[in-house]
Amino acid sequence: MYDDFLARILEPDIFLPSQFYGSGFYGSGGLSRQLEGEKRLMIAVLKDAVECLEKYRSARSSVGRSHYENAIDWIKDTDAEWLFSFTNICDLLGFDPDYMREVLLKRENKYSKPVRSSVLSFAAMGSPQ
To answer: Which of 57, 58, 65 is nearest to 105 (CA)?
Structure first.
């Protein structure tokens, strides 16, 4: 009884090309609408990350800094295990993930504030050399 039930559940779905593609590229078939919805979700995730970089770049609040750091970490992560990873989203949308990562991180480095390499102490400023 359970074996038949599991066999039916685990049976692969079989689609004809006309069911998958419909009348055009991703056409008007039922499956293609789902793919378009998933594609829109992936575009929204990528867009949100880029908007977080823009909006929270100079944030002083912990929430704003957290959004910024999460976006940076997500872009830097090269792991492709998670469906909505930066690498997978770029691949599935037809972008080169390495190139996109490089462009976004270069832009952030351009806007980052330069860090002083050395700090002068008051004692060093007052003593004659």
So the answer is: 57
pTM above 0.70, yes or no: no
Task: Indicate if the pLDDT at residue 23 is higher than 90.
Answer: no
Least Cα distance to 93 among 33, 43, 34, 21 occurs for: 43
pLDDT digits (tens, 9 = 90+) for 39-95: 889 999 999 999 999 999 999 999 999 999 999 999 999 999 998 999 999 999 989
